[in-house]
Amino acid sequence: MNASIEFSEIGGVTVNSESFPSGATPGPANPAPRTCSGEAPGSWELPHRPESAGVARRVTCAALDAWGVDDNASDQVLMVVSELVTNAVEHALPPVTLRVERPAADTVHIEVDDGGPAAQEGSWATTGGPEEHGRGGVIVSALSTAHGSRPLAHGATHWADVTAV
Question: What confidence tens digit (pLDDT) does each residue in 62-100 have?
Fold first, then answer.
């Protein structure tokens, strides 16, 4: 797995490291590119807002493309990423961090860290009726070969492994 891609999400647009002027210092105006490869995991801090599921899908899709993951497996990984990030944004406190790595040729490992349970759900989570909620765990379970959660000092990590060929 030598596939590698460097990119950074800036206002919904993915740019590569060549987009930065020579000598530019990473910072708010020039965020540091992220590296996503089979050997080094990709890690992204996501804003605590509903749009983060879309950002998470875009950066994950770029990694899956770089790794040569087929379309069917990519769709499954993207659905799991979307569910885990959406749950973190709707039901937990910030920060939200997404990590995606490929520990083996046939596996994509996904982790989403959150800041622990929120005292109340985000206002966007309460706009739909009960019939629109509660399926995320079932979806993650159906699409992953293994999944779970582990506590952190200030929150939790929710993870899943998805077959990717």
Answer: 999 999 999 999 999 999 999 999 999 999 999 999 999
Please say whether the beta carbons of 112 and 96 come within 8 A: yes
Distance between CA 112 and CA 72 in Å, rounded? 22
**Pairing outcome for strands 96-104 and 107-114:** antiparallel
Return the H-helix or E-strand segment holding 84. helix 71-91
Q: Which two structure tokens, joined as six digits, stand for 143?
A: 């699409």
Amino acid at the residue 81: V
| Dist CA 98 CA 104 (whole Å) | 19
pTM more than 0.90: no
Question: How far is the C-alpha of 12 from the C-alpha of 27, rounded, in Å?
Answer: 17
Alpha-carbon span 84 to 77, nearest angstrom: 11
Give the burial class of 126: count Cβ atoms within 10 A of its Cβ; 0-12 exposed, 13-18 middle, 19 or more buried: exposed
Instruction: State how far Cα 102 lies from the chain centre.
Output: 13
Indicate the DSSP class of residue 2: -
Topology given in CATH for the domain delimited by 43-163: Heat Shock Protein 90 (3.30.565)
